[in-house]
Design a protein that fits this description.
The protein has three domains: 249 residues, Bira Bifunctional Protein, Domain 2 (BirA Bifunctional Protein, domain 2), CATH 3.30.930.10; 87 residues, Herpes Virus-1; 92 residues, Rossmann fold. Helix content is 35%, strand content 25%. It contains 16 helices and 23 strands. The strands form seven sheets. The protein has a seven-stranded mixed beta sheet with strand order 3-9-10-16-13-12-11, sandwiched between helices. It has a five-stranded mixed beta sheet with strand order 20-19-21-22-23, with helices on both faces. Strands 5-4-6 form a three-stranded antiparallel beta sheet. Helix 2 crosses helix 12 and helix 6 crosses helix 7. The structure holds adenosine-5'-triphosphate. Adenosine-5'-triphosphate (ATP) binds next to strand 10, strand 13, strand 16 and helix 12.
Length: 479
């Protein structure tokens, strides 16, 4: 996939009503997007797939916790102290960058130079960039000139920047609860949905009489004040997470991690139609692990702009539960009545972003059919916003009435569209771009023998099918 592929996907998203730039009439708000009619349906189908996949396990239950929680939650979780990205400013033009992002846009010789200055090895990977960022931050006095002396280019100006020493930038959005800024308490918009699960886990466990191992699944908005928000909806400041936190006995953490790694990658190929070749695992090296993690894998997708994380699978140990216990003074231990054992369960987290999955699905499905000069969204049937378009060949001779009857019948099972505008070829092509799986045409023969033409989106194959067999045909031929 080339970078152009992304531009084409973005343009299709606007044209067909999947995603619109936010506040466009006011010049737009950077990294904010609105989901249009087809986008809402696609997003909903992806999240429903995820929800079904998780809650079909009888020991996984749902939760919908608040976006705003007690501020101590973020003290305990370490987000106030640690949820930071190192950043640097170019003193010349005041442009601000996330250090690892800036480094990812530099030539190898620049990174080699920084590694030499810091006496670390350049493994040519993102972990090396993370390591450099951390050193720039933690030893900012010693390395205050390192970026400039290594010749780090400002991507905006194309010149070597005059870089400030790296400083921390907390990614949480802070706001005020209550009528007065002075008396109200500062609160944060949640940067992850996970903490809402941890602080409720004993209430969930008790109310549902769950036994370890069990999981709690949640879908909801999260907010991060990203320094660099780009690549369309890949990285935005407001996004939706789908997280499942799995509570296990501490002795079973590694086994559970392997289980979920396998399950999650299967989900992408079998439920979202992603080819195995476009997916890979990336294990975090020990020094690049988050403060709470013992082991961490990302699932990465081969986006048009390179490999990018779509999901994190983390062994968060008992870190969060113990920290909440310390700060709240409340017991966060699970009691196993059968074994008469009390312990803090380990947590295996699977955390994905709905918007990133949405972008991944579109990048995978977008196809330019050179032979037939058309653009096709080869979406899996279950994800297609509309499953069929119903078209009377002409707007007369009783064809629209018959087509409306068929629309009613098919639409009662599968979401469909009715379209009588333009030539039949144009109508099909319009829907190919929107991912609609089948085109059903009603013509004069329909009135004679009660059959219709059904056209498949990907193969463009057309078949004559009896009206009473349309639903059967769809269920036999859906991809
Ligand atoms: P990244 O390294 O890309 O910033 P992360 O490691 O901080 O991601 P996690 O904290 O593990 O991400 O969050 C889990 C998932 O949430 C990610 O895999 C991604 O799908 C999604 N996600 C995180 N940040 C964003 C964002 N700013 N915009 C959209 N989705 C996001």
């Amino acid at each position: 996939m080339s970078k152009k592929h992304l531009d084409k996907v973005i343009s299709l998203c606007k044209r067909k009503g999947f995603v619109f730039p936010n506040s466009e009439i006011y010049g737009g708000l950077k990294a904010s997007y609105d989901y249009g009619p087809l986008g809402v349906d696609l997003k909903k189908s992806i999240s429903e797939k995820w929800w079904e996949e998780m809650t079909r396990h009888s020991n996984i239950v749902g939760l919908d916790s608040s976006i705003m929680v007690h501020p101590d939650v973020w003290e305990a979780s370490g987000h106030v102290a640690n949820f930071n990205d190192p950043m640097t400013d170019n003193k010349d033009n005041k442009k601000r960058y996330r250090v690892d992002d800036l480094l990812s846009q530099q030539k190898t010789k620049v990174i080699d130079d920084l590694c030499r200055q810091m006496s670390i090895q350049n493994n040519n990977d993102s972990d090396t960039l993370d390591r450099i960022s951390t050193i720039l931050l933690t030893q900012s006095d010693k390395f205050s000139n390192a970026l400039e002396s290594a010749g780090v280019i400002d991507p905006f100006s194309g010149n070597i920047g005059k870089w400030t020493a790296a400083t921390q930038f907390n990614l949480m959005f802070k706001t005020n609860a209550g009528p007065s800024e002075k008396t109200g308490k500062s609160i944060y918009l949640r940067p992850e949905t996970a903490q809402g699960i941890y602080i409720n886990y004993l209430l969930v466990q008790n109310s549902m009489r769950l036994k370890v191992p069990f999981g709690i699944a949640q879908i909801g908005k999260a907010f991060r004040n990203e320094i660099v928000a780009r690549n369309f909806i890949f990285r935005t400041r407001e996004f939706e997470q789908m997280e499942m936190q799995y509570f296990v006995h501490p002795s079973e953490d590694e086994q559970s991690m392997s289980f979920w790694k396998e399950k999650r990658i299967d989900f992408y190929t079998s439920e979202l139609g992603i080819s195995q070749d476009n997916l890979k695992f990336h294990q975090h090296s020990e020094d690049a692990l988050a403060h709470y993690a013992k082991d961490a894998f990302d699932i990465e997708y081969n986006f048009p702009f390179g490999w990018g994380e779509v999901e994190g699978i983390h062994n968060r140990t008992d870190f969060d539960l113990k920290e909440h216990e310390k700060l709240s003074g409340k017991n966060m231990m699970y009691f196993d009545q059968v074994k008469n054992e009390k312990y803090h369960p380990f947590i295996i987290e699977t955390s994905t972003g709905l918007n990133r999955l949405f972008l991944m699905v579109l990048c995978e499905a977008y196809f330019e059919d050179e032979v037939n000069k058309r653009t096709v969204l080869k979406l899996p049937f279950d994800l297609a916003p509309n499953k069929a378009v119903i078209c009377p060949l002409l707007k007369k001779d009783g064809l629209p009435e018959k087509a409306q009857n068929i629309f009613g019948m098919v639409n009662s099972e599968h979401k469909c569209l009715y379209d009588e505008q333009g030539s039949i070829g144009k109508r099909y092509y319009r829907q190919d771009e929107a991912g609609t799986a089948f085109g059903i045409t009603i013509d004069h023969e329909t009135l004679e023998n009660d059959t219709v033409t059904i056209r498949e989106r990907d193969s463009m194959k057309q078949q004559r099918v009896s009206c009473d067999k349309i639903l059967q045909f769809i269920s036999d031929n859906k991809i």
